[in-house]
Amino acid sequence: MALNILNKYIWLADTIYNAGSISLKEINSKWLKSNLSIGKPLTRRTFHNHKIAIEEIFDINIGCNPISNEYYIEDIEEFGKNELIKWLLNSFSISNIIQESKEIKYRIILDEVPSAQSFLADIIKAIRENNIVIMTYHPFWSSTPLEIEFYPYFVKLFNRRWYVYGRTETEDKVKVYALDRIKKLTGTNRKFVFPIDFAAVEFLNASIGIMKTDSEKPCKINIKAYAETTQYLLALPLHHSQQVVESTQDYTIFSYWLSPTDDFYQEILRKREYLEVVSPQGVREKLASIIHKLSEYYL
Length: 299
Prior knowledge:
Layout lengths: L2 H17 L2 E2 H10 L10 H15 L3 E4 L4 E4 L2 H6 L1 H17 L20 H10 L1 E7 L8 E13 L2 E8 L6 E4 L3 E10 L8 H4 L15 E8 L2 H7 L7 E5 L3 E8 L3 H9 L4 E5 L1 H17 L2
Antiparallel strand pairs: 1-3, 2-3, 4-5, 4-8, 5-6, 6-7, 9-11, 9-12, 10-11
Helix pairs in contact: 1-3, 1-5
């Protein structure tokens, strides 16, 4: 599935969602004004094919009022709770606005996500169909690429990079791979069995970022935030388990339940002297060791 067709699905879902209720004629009017149309109308047959694909890929059900012949999103309240769909539609809406505002494109600056342009659409298709893929993967630590028979489970975007999680043919363990390290991806018609008891959200429930290790078990971590960092964390929590333990004029202590992986330490260090790990002592000492190593670079 090409990235362009995926964009068309998202455009259609976004258009119906924003309209609330809209006829096919009105959809076509908006479609012809978009860059995706290339000046060609959206036929009724193509519309219904897109509608079916949207339901299958994104679990967005598009209903039709038989009286007005207008289309709408069913179960709109549940739809609003789907963080992935909201992110996709929001991202596409912004992209569409930018495309239609070419006269000010140099005044809109976005972070590039290179991996989204390569294999994301193909991997999503393989995930949807539970198809095994063959990927040529070149990790940073290896001098030569690896040939991997891969069972893709789910994808995640973090710090401008897309990652895919899944099992390999030889290991019964869920591992993560960066899309921008994939050199070649070949789809197959061979199926794999996706575990019915596996949930992506639960798999990374106690993690910040992309990592999950057997050695770093989840634990309660207290972090003290100084100055305006408190307000930043209240507006954008470091982790979904975040809770306020103590608040004063000078600082706020937040509590978390998570695994202290490398991604965790990197997030803490990003806030420089404005965050302090209070407990547990082992996490505090490891962070101190990292900071000591950093200080040696500048002495």
